[in-house]
Amino acid sequence: MRFTIDQFLDYTERHEDIPIEIRAFVFDFSGENRGSEGRMLQEMEEYDFFPQIESLDIINYHGNELPEDFFQKFPNLKYLFINHSTIQTVPTSIGELVYLETLDLGSNRITHLPDTIGQLHELENMSLNNNRLRALPESIINLQNLMELFLDENPNLRALPNGIERLESLQTLVIDRRLEGRVPDELVNRLRVFEVENNNNGNNGNNGNNGNNGNNGNNGNNGNNGNNNGNNDLYPAIPQTGGVKKKAKKTKKGKKTKKRPHQKRKKTLRRKRT
Predict the structure, then answer these.
(1) What residues contact 230, with CB distance under 8 A and at least 6 apart?
(2) Prediction pTM value
(3) Strands 79-83 and 102-104, sheet pairing
(4) For residues 56 and 25, is the Cβ–Cβ distance under 8 A?
């Protein structure tokens, strides 16, 4: 069921009972009340069907933060998507979503995550791309079921947390070229997909880390990009002979083409609706 916030308030005024079988819900904050979303959520009463929601999507939220107790209304949430919004901080109550499997916070203005993120022990997929993260909490290493982590398009994020190689279930890692420091060998060798995104130009230049392409950096995408992509000093842990592991799919002609992990509204994280 999809509502703008105005439609939702209007619907609840005209209907005494809301179908309890609702499992997926979308809050679209487009409309006349743009800018007052936080107040409206705070004043919203706790409806009987909220605890039944398993998939929640919040779009176009133009406040800096969500109410601190907001996630307490959705104790059975499994899939959470907050995109194309302006939130800067995430409530600590997110740690109470003990059944959460997918967390997509892409395309916001988030600068940091609460330590309680480490309490999401069922989390398998997390997308934090296109934000303003400065660091990741050390508690992230407690996410032992995490299989996919997307951190690209975070220009202020300079390092991965210590001990990230302890994420033994992690299979996909996408980071920004501007990330500094060393990616542990133990982690890189275990990953099925490891991509380094360079979002300042038209090509992400992953092949620049490959020993075969190191000199020209992705076959000379442009003069400036070639030198950067051929330089492995930023990522000395990436195998010189094996290159960067990438997802690929075959075209009709049998050639392999790269599949981008995340493009604006087309999410990499597959939505599982019930």
Answers:
(1) 208, 213, 214, 215, 216, 217
(2) 0.71
(3) parallel
(4) yes
